[in-house]
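User: Last request for today: this protein with magnesium ion, please.
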Amino acid sequence: MSSIRTNGNMALFLGITRSGKSVPVKRISEKWTRVLVYDPKGEYHLELGFEQANTRRELLDMLKAATGPAKINYMGISKSDFLFFCDCAFNWNHQKEAMIICEELASVTNAGKADGAWNRLINQSMAFGPLVVGTVQRGQEVDKSLLNSANFVHVAQHGTDDDAYYIAKKLGVPMEEIPREPLKFFQWTANRGIVVRGHVDFKGAKGKLWDDGTPRFIRASNGKPMKFNRAGRFDGVAYC
Ligand SMILES: Nc1ncnc2c1ncn2[C@@H]1O[C@H](COP(=O)(O)OP(=O)(O)OP(=O)(O)O)[C@@H](O)[C@H]1O
Ligand SMILES: [Mg+2]
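Assistant: Here's the final one, the structure of the complex with magnesium ion:
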Protein backbone atom coordinates (compact mmCIF):
# COMPACT_ATOMS: atom_id res chain seq x y z
CA MET A 1 0.00 0.00 0.00
CA SER A 2 1.22 3.52 -0.76
CA SER A 3 2.07 5.78 2.12
CA ILE A 4 0.11 9.02 2.46
CA ARG A 5 1.64 11.78 0.36
CA THR A 6 1.19 15.49 -0.03
CA ASN A 7 -1.34 16.82 -2.51
CA GLY A 8 -0.25 17.27 -6.08
CA ASN A 9 -0.34 20.30 -8.33
CA MET A 10 -1.55 20.97 -11.82
CA ALA A 11 -0.62 23.78 -14.21
CA LEU A 12 -1.46 24.86 -17.73
CA PHE A 13 0.93 26.73 -20.06
CA LEU A 14 -0.79 28.58 -22.87
CA GLY A 15 0.56 30.51 -25.88
CA ILE A 16 1.35 30.36 -29.59
CA THR A 17 4.31 28.46 -30.98
CA ARG A 18 7.68 29.87 -29.79
CA SER A 19 5.95 31.97 -27.14
CA GLY A 20 7.85 30.41 -24.25
CA LYS A 21 5.71 27.53 -22.93
CA SER A 22 8.20 24.68 -22.94
CA VAL A 23 11.14 26.73 -21.67
CA PRO A 24 9.60 27.24 -18.19
CA VAL A 25 8.24 23.69 -18.14
CA LYS A 26 11.73 22.32 -18.88
CA ARG A 27 13.17 24.51 -16.16
CA ILE A 28 10.65 23.17 -13.63
CA SER A 29 11.47 19.60 -14.69
CA GLU A 30 15.02 20.17 -13.42
CA LYS A 31 13.54 20.25 -9.88
CA TRP A 32 12.30 16.67 -10.20
CA THR A 33 14.18 13.37 -10.27
CA ARG A 34 11.24 11.46 -11.77
CA VAL A 35 9.78 13.02 -14.91
CA LEU A 36 7.61 11.46 -17.59
CA VAL A 37 6.81 13.48 -20.72
CA TYR A 38 4.41 13.02 -23.59
CA ASP A 39 6.16 15.03 -26.29
CA PRO A 40 5.55 14.27 -29.96
CA LYS A 41 8.53 16.49 -30.85
CA GLY A 42 11.04 14.64 -28.65
CA GLU A 43 12.58 17.91 -27.37
CA TYR A 44 13.17 16.58 -23.87
CA HIS A 45 15.31 13.81 -25.31
CA LEU A 46 17.21 16.00 -27.77
CA GLU A 47 17.76 18.99 -25.51
CA LEU A 48 17.66 17.69 -21.95
CA GLY A 49 18.92 14.13 -22.45
CA PHE A 50 15.76 12.31 -21.34
CA GLU A 51 15.58 8.62 -22.29
CA GLN A 52 13.41 8.25 -25.34
CA ALA A 53 10.60 5.71 -25.69
CA ASN A 54 9.39 5.43 -29.28
CA THR A 55 6.88 2.64 -28.80
CA ARG A 56 4.43 1.57 -26.10
CA ARG A 57 6.53 -1.51 -25.44
CA GLU A 58 9.66 0.62 -24.92
CA LEU A 59 7.73 2.94 -22.62
CA LEU A 60 6.45 0.03 -20.50
CA ASP A 61 9.89 -1.54 -20.26
CA MET A 62 11.51 1.74 -19.24
CA LEU A 63 8.86 2.46 -16.62
CA LYS A 64 9.03 -1.03 -15.16
CA ALA A 65 12.77 -0.58 -14.66
CA ALA A 66 12.38 2.97 -13.33
CA THR A 67 11.56 2.40 -9.68
CA GLY A 68 13.71 5.39 -8.65
CA PRO A 69 14.96 8.50 -10.46
CA ALA A 70 14.27 8.52 -14.22
CA LYS A 71 13.51 11.03 -16.95
CA ILE A 72 11.60 9.58 -19.87
CA ASN A 73 10.17 11.13 -23.05
CA TYR A 74 7.46 9.17 -24.85
CA MET A 75 7.10 10.22 -28.46
CA GLY A 76 3.52 9.15 -29.07
CA ILE A 77 1.60 10.16 -32.18
CA SER A 78 -2.07 9.36 -31.68
CA LYS A 79 -4.82 9.93 -29.18
CA SER A 80 -4.73 6.28 -28.19
CA ASP A 81 -0.95 6.59 -27.59
CA PHE A 82 -1.72 9.54 -25.33
CA LEU A 83 -4.35 7.63 -23.35
CA PHE A 84 -1.90 4.75 -22.96
CA PHE A 85 0.68 7.26 -21.71
CA CYS A 86 -1.86 8.67 -19.19
CA ASP A 87 -2.54 5.19 -17.86
CA CYS A 88 1.22 4.58 -17.46
CA ALA A 89 1.74 8.02 -15.88
CA PHE A 90 -1.03 7.44 -13.34
CA ASN A 91 0.50 4.14 -12.23
CA TRP A 92 4.10 5.35 -12.29
CA ASN A 93 3.21 8.32 -10.10
CA HIS A 94 1.23 6.06 -7.81
CA GLN A 95 4.39 4.04 -7.29
CA LYS A 96 6.45 7.15 -6.41
CA GLU A 97 5.60 10.79 -7.05
CA ALA A 98 6.62 12.27 -10.36
CA MET A 99 6.28 15.25 -12.67
CA ILE A 100 4.06 14.41 -15.62
CA ILE A 101 4.28 16.70 -18.66
CA CYS A 102 1.77 16.61 -21.52
CA GLU A 103 3.03 18.70 -24.46
CA GLU A 104 0.80 19.78 -27.35
CA LEU A 105 -2.37 18.69 -25.60
CA ALA A 106 -4.67 20.02 -28.30
CA SER A 107 -3.56 17.29 -30.68
CA VAL A 108 -4.77 14.55 -28.32
CA THR A 109 -7.52 16.06 -26.15
CA ASN A 110 -10.51 18.20 -26.99
CA ALA A 111 -12.09 21.26 -25.46
CA GLY A 112 -14.79 19.18 -23.78
CA LYS A 113 -14.53 17.24 -20.56
CA ALA A 114 -11.53 14.93 -20.18
CA ASP A 115 -12.16 11.27 -20.82
CA GLY A 116 -10.74 7.87 -19.93
CA ALA A 117 -7.19 7.61 -18.65
CA TRP A 118 -6.61 11.35 -19.13
CA ASN A 119 -9.58 12.08 -16.88
CA ARG A 120 -8.23 9.71 -14.25
CA LEU A 121 -4.77 11.27 -14.41
CA ILE A 122 -6.00 14.80 -13.80
CA ASN A 123 -8.84 14.00 -11.42
CA GLN A 124 -7.60 11.08 -9.38
CA SER A 125 -3.82 11.26 -9.18
CA MET A 126 -3.65 14.41 -7.07
CA ALA A 127 -3.65 12.62 -3.70
CA PHE A 128 -0.39 10.99 -4.75
CA GLY A 129 1.67 14.17 -5.05
CA PRO A 130 2.45 14.66 -8.74
CA LEU A 131 2.96 17.85 -10.66
CA VAL A 132 0.90 17.50 -13.85
CA VAL A 133 1.62 20.11 -16.53
CA GLY A 134 -0.05 20.62 -19.90
CA THR A 135 0.86 22.94 -22.78
CA VAL A 136 -1.64 24.23 -25.35
CA GLN A 137 -1.37 26.85 -28.09
CA ARG A 138 -4.88 28.34 -28.06
CA GLY A 139 -7.38 28.88 -25.27
CA GLN A 140 -10.19 27.54 -27.45
CA GLU A 141 -8.40 24.17 -27.53
CA VAL A 142 -7.89 23.85 -23.81
CA ASP A 143 -9.40 20.86 -22.13
CA LYS A 144 -12.16 22.13 -19.86
CA SER A 145 -11.28 19.77 -17.00
CA LEU A 146 -7.66 20.91 -17.01
CA LEU A 147 -8.56 24.59 -17.07
CA ASN A 148 -10.96 24.08 -14.17
CA SER A 149 -8.55 22.09 -12.03
CA ALA A 150 -5.24 23.88 -12.76
CA ASN A 151 -3.70 25.52 -9.69
CA PHE A 152 -2.48 28.23 -12.02
CA VAL A 153 -2.40 29.14 -15.70
CA HIS A 154 0.77 30.54 -17.30
CA VAL A 155 -0.28 32.75 -20.21
CA ALA A 156 2.37 33.56 -22.85
CA GLN A 157 2.12 35.32 -26.22
CA HIS A 158 -1.12 35.21 -28.22
CA GLY A 159 -1.08 35.88 -31.94
CA THR A 160 -4.53 37.10 -32.93
CA ASP A 161 -7.07 39.43 -31.38
CA ASP A 162 -9.62 36.63 -31.50
CA ASP A 163 -7.44 34.30 -29.45
CA ALA A 164 -6.43 37.06 -27.02
CA TYR A 165 -10.08 38.07 -26.60
CA TYR A 166 -11.14 34.49 -25.95
CA ILE A 167 -8.68 33.85 -23.16
CA ALA A 168 -9.09 37.32 -21.64
CA LYS A 169 -12.82 36.67 -21.32
CA LYS A 170 -12.31 33.16 -20.01
CA LEU A 171 -9.94 34.33 -17.28
CA GLY A 172 -11.79 37.59 -16.61
CA VAL A 173 -8.79 39.84 -17.29
CA PRO A 174 -8.60 42.94 -19.53
CA MET A 175 -7.61 42.09 -23.11
CA GLU A 176 -4.58 44.45 -22.86
CA GLU A 177 -3.09 42.08 -20.27
CA ILE A 178 -2.72 39.24 -22.80
CA PRO A 179 0.97 39.14 -23.90
CA ARG A 180 1.44 39.88 -27.59
CA GLU A 181 5.25 39.54 -27.72
CA PRO A 182 7.30 36.36 -27.43
CA LEU A 183 8.70 35.44 -24.01
CA LYS A 184 6.34 37.72 -22.07
CA PHE A 185 3.95 36.05 -19.63
CA PHE A 186 1.63 36.35 -16.70
CA GLN A 187 0.35 33.74 -14.29
CA TRP A 188 -3.24 33.55 -13.15
CA THR A 189 -5.18 31.72 -10.45
CA ALA A 190 -8.93 31.34 -10.13
CA ASN A 191 -8.94 32.95 -6.68
CA ARG A 192 -6.59 35.86 -7.20
CA GLY A 193 -6.56 36.60 -10.95
CA ILE A 194 -3.14 37.71 -12.26
CA VAL A 195 -0.56 36.93 -9.58
CA VAL A 196 2.66 37.81 -11.43
CA ARG A 197 3.82 39.30 -14.74
CA GLY A 198 7.25 38.85 -16.31
CA HIS A 199 9.42 37.87 -19.26
CA VAL A 200 12.05 35.27 -20.07
CA ASP A 201 15.61 36.14 -20.99
CA PHE A 202 18.53 33.87 -21.79
CA LYS A 203 21.25 35.89 -20.15
CA GLY A 204 21.86 33.35 -17.39
CA ALA A 205 25.17 31.49 -17.24
CA LYS A 206 25.62 28.64 -19.69
CA GLY A 207 24.72 25.39 -17.98
CA LYS A 208 25.02 21.68 -18.70
CA LEU A 209 21.51 21.66 -20.15
CA TRP A 210 21.45 25.18 -21.55
CA ASP A 211 24.29 25.80 -24.02
CA ASP A 212 22.98 29.21 -25.09
CA GLY A 213 22.44 30.50 -21.56
CA THR A 214 20.11 29.40 -18.80
CA PRO A 215 16.66 31.01 -19.06
CA ARG A 216 15.79 33.51 -16.38
CA PHE A 217 12.27 34.60 -15.47
CA ILE A 218 12.29 38.31 -14.76
CA ARG A 219 9.49 39.77 -12.65
CA ALA A 220 7.95 42.88 -14.23
CA SER A 221 7.29 44.63 -10.91
CA ASN A 222 10.93 44.71 -9.74
CA GLY A 223 13.14 43.51 -12.62
CA LYS A 224 14.47 40.64 -10.50
CA PRO A 225 14.79 36.99 -11.56
CA MET A 226 12.38 34.51 -9.96
CA LYS A 227 13.07 30.86 -9.17
CA PHE A 228 10.69 27.96 -9.71
CA ASN A 229 9.93 25.52 -6.94
CA ARG A 230 8.92 21.88 -7.16
CA ALA A 231 5.21 22.77 -7.31
CA GLY A 232 5.98 24.57 -10.58
CA ARG A 233 5.37 27.95 -8.93
CA PHE A 234 7.68 30.91 -8.51
CA ASP A 235 9.07 31.37 -5.01
CA GLY A 236 7.94 34.65 -3.51
CA VAL A 237 4.68 34.93 -5.49
CA ALA A 238 1.38 34.63 -3.59
CA TYR A 239 -0.79 32.16 -5.50
CA CYS A 240 -3.62 31.83 -2.99
N1 LIG B 1 18.65 28.40 -24.53
C1 LIG B 1 18.01 29.26 -25.32
N2 LIG B 1 18.61 30.41 -25.72
C2 LIG B 1 17.98 31.31 -26.48
N3 LIG B 1 16.70 31.15 -26.90
C3 LIG B 1 16.05 30.03 -26.56
C4 LIG B 1 16.67 29.02 -25.76
N4 LIG B 1 15.74 28.02 -25.57
C5 LIG B 1 14.63 28.40 -26.23
N5 LIG B 1 14.81 29.61 -26.81
C6 LIG B 1 13.81 30.37 -27.57
O1 LIG B 1 12.72 30.67 -26.72
C7 LIG B 1 11.53 30.71 -27.50
C8 LIG B 1 10.45 29.93 -26.80
O2 LIG B 1 10.71 28.53 -26.91
P1 LIG B 1 9.69 27.43 -26.34
O3 LIG B 1 10.31 26.11 -26.68
O4 LIG B 1 9.39 27.69 -24.92
O5 LIG B 1 8.42 27.70 -27.23
P2 LIG B 1 6.98 27.01 -27.11
O6 LIG B 1 6.01 28.05 -26.69
O7 LIG B 1 7.07 25.78 -26.30
O8 LIG B 1 6.68 26.68 -28.64
P3 LIG B 1 6.03 25.36 -29.34
O9 LIG B 1 4.54 25.49 -29.19
O10 LIG B 1 6.46 25.49 -30.75
O11 LIG B 1 6.58 24.16 -28.64
C9 LIG B 1 11.87 30.22 -28.89
O12 LIG B 1 11.98 31.31 -29.75
C10 LIG B 1 13.21 29.54 -28.69
O13 LIG B 1 14.01 29.61 -29.85
MG1 LIG C 1 6.94 23.78 -26.76
